[in-house]
Design goal:
This protein is an alpha/beta fold. It has helices at residues 18-29, 41-48, 56-64, 81-88, 124-131; strands spanning 4-11, 31-39, 71-75, 92-96, 113-116. It is 34% helix and 23% strand. α1 links the parallel β1 and β2 (31-39). The relative contact order is 0.22.
Length: 133
């Protein structure tokens, strides 16, 4: 597969797990520089209809500590995918294949979207249902 100069991905990362790490590793293998944009608490509440388990500051620290991540930024309601793509001018967007062109909000932003394989048997939704409800 083609190696891109600059890739970007978006996520909540409120219950960081091995599936997140695997997606980040896959993305980094496909680009020289990887930007991860972490959704802020208001974005989560608006789009996911629940509060974040971990505060943004902790989620940013976790993502910033990962050796595969070159740049970390924040996605908010006011400063979303469109604005972050304009800011960084990436070559590609990476997203897990639990999304589709019909459900992912990054389609139509003028750059390709690559759907990466998810790790079977783990998701934040599964963890939330098991431990927080």
């Amino acid at each position: 597969m083609k190696k891109y100069r600059l890739g970007i991905s978006f996520g909540v990362y409120e219950l960081f797990h091995i599936g997140h790490l695997n997606l980040i590793k896959q993305a980094k293998n496909l680009c020289d520089k990887l930007i991860i944009c972490v959704s802020d608490d208001n974005y989560i509440l608006y789009h996911k209809k629940h509060s974040s388990v971990m505060p943004l500051s902790i989620r940013l620290e976790i993502i910033s500590s990962i050796k595969y991540v070159d740049v970390v930024d924040i996605q908010s309601i006011e400063y979303g995918k469109k604005e972050l793509i304009k800011k960084y001018n990436p070559d590609v967007i990476f997203v897990g294949n639990d999304w589709t062109p019909a459900t992912f909000g990054g389609e139509g932003l003028g750059i390709p979207v690559i759907y990466l394989n998810r790790t079977d048997g783990i998701s934040s939704t599964q963890l939330r249902e098991k431990y927080f409800q």
